[in-house]
Amino acid sequence: MLRDVFYIGGYDPRSYRYYYALLKKNLLKQNAINHLDLEISSCFTNSQFPFCKITHQQALSYYYFLEWNEIVKKYWSRSILDFVLDFIYFFKMYILSGIFVTFIKESKTQLVAGLYPILYFTLGYSLAFACIYFLFLTLKEWNLFFAIFMAFVMVLAFSKLIIYGGKKIAVFWLSNIYAFCAKYALNKIEEIDGLIDGFAKVIYHKFKEHRNIKDYELILSAHSVGTILAVNIAAKVIARANKEGISLEGFKMLTLGECIPLVSFQKDYQAFKRDLELLVNTPIVWFDITSPIDGACFPFVDFVRISKIEAKFPPIYLSARFHKLFTPQSYKEIRRNRYLAHFLYLYATEIIGVYDYFNFIGGIDTLETKLLRSKNE
Questions:
Q1: Tell me, what DSSP letter sits at residue 315?
Q2: d(C-alpha 352, C-alpha 361), whole Å
Q3: pLDDT (0 to 100) of residue 231
Q4: At 292, which helix (H) or strand (E)?
Q5: CA angle 324, 170, 19 (to 5 degrees)
Q6: Residues of the chain whose pLDDT is less than 50?
Q7: Helix, strand, or coil here: 70?
Q8: Whole-angstrom Cα distance, residue 322 to residue 327?
Q9: pTM
Q10: Nearest by Cα to 226 from 260, 265, 251
Q11: Alpha helices per DSSP H over the chain
């Protein structure tokens, strides 16, 4: 079995080095669970994309990291002003636009996730100003100028505390994602088109090179916001194949913890809608895997239907069923850590079951054989 896997991560400023380390650590850990005895090489950087080799006795996978963290760094919010601007943009694009009605109807949890940063920010500063006002009233009886000075100092101190707490519980990461995806829908991320073209070109040529090998598959694996980019990348690969009359049998997509509705729910997303329509009317294998404990994804939301797209080959929506993959004690801890739950798709499990990312990318048999067999069990 020969396999090319192209992985595109979520909205994260960290480079491929972090994701390679995460992959290696958890792949080796999962060997004790699935007994595949997979081996992973060092990371090579002498090609277009960093990659490593994953070796099984009967399979060889080349795992490529499609980096876009430099774009994330450019749009990453760092200051209070950045956070405020994100909140304003969220309010404009998700509330004033009226699409919050769709969120309420289709995925209330994700609307709450979008409002969560605003609530955190509002409540945090309400409490801060109440404390500062009480301090000011107390000190002004002694010295008015000192009271004003201390109020100013306390505003700065509370601001730093609010930012620190928000970063620790990923509040501002959420608001930044919502703002970024709204801009993406409006084609306001200038650098993204060239990046996607480059990704699609390399993926297509790799697929074209290996397509005549009997036991071969190419998997475009994407996580979180990366699933949005994956739609556009796959559409460009399909367009190239259609132009050259090449069958896409063996080309597959695996979307994990997807955030696609953050773009597809937007009113001005026609270019993205065309790509999504092309994708779901081309006979390729596409599995969309989510989990209800993942508060940063859209579990089991049929974003194709909601977009009013007629689809001959829609994604196959599956649950990761994490509750079956961890002990009750571990699962209880995971549920309290929503940030971890969103990345759990890339982690080793404690119990063998339906979901095994490392078997998908490194074991024998095709992706659909593993997932459809698991679905029927």
A1: -
A2: 16
A3: 97
A4: none
A5: 65
A6: 376-377
A7: helix
A8: 10
A9: 0.89
A10: 260
A11: 16-34, 69-75, 80-90, 100-106, 108-140, 144-168, 171-185, 192-210, 226-244, 261-264, 270-279, 303-306, 328-336, 338-343, 357-362, 367-376
What pLDDT sits at residue 376? 47
Burial 139-177 (b: 16+ CB within 10 A, else e): beeeeeeebeebbeebeeebeeebbeebeeebbbbbbbb
Q: How crowded is residue 350: how many other Cβ atoms within 10 Å of its Cβ?
A: 15
Contact criterion met (CB below 8 Å) for 320 and 291:
yes
Closest by CA to 51, choosing from 216, 221, 235, is 221
Residue 332 CA, chain-centre distance (Å), reads 23
State whether residue 57 is helix, strand or coil. Answer: coil
CA angle 161, 164, 170 (to 5 degrees): 135
Closest CA to 267 of 230, 239, 306, 231: 306
116: which 2 tokens? 């969560």
Say which amino acid occupies 41. Answer: S
**What token pair was written down for 150?**
């201390």
* Biggest CA-to-CA distance, the chain: 85
User: In terms of Cα–Cα distance, which of 208, 201, 185 is closest to 90?
Assistant: 185
Residues paired with 288 in a beta bridge: 255, 317
Q: Which residues contact 16 (CB under 8 A, 6 or more apart)?
A: 43, 50, 65, 67
The residue length of the chain stands at 377
- Residues whose CB is less than 8 angstroms from the CB of residue 63 and which lie 6 or more positions away in sequence, other chains included: 5, 7, 23, 51, 52, 53, 54, 361
Identify the structural domains of the chain with CATH numbers, from first to last.
2-71+190-376 (3.40.50), 77-182 (no CATH)
Spatial separation of the C-alpha atoms in residues 307 and 75, rounded to whole Å: 27
Residue 53: is it exposed, middle or buried by C-beta count within 10 angstroms (0-12/13-18/19+)? middle
Tens of pLDDT, residues 175-218: 888 889 989 988 889 899 999 999 999 999 999 999 999 999 99
Q: At what angle do helices 144-168 and 80-90 cross, to 10 degrees?
A: 60
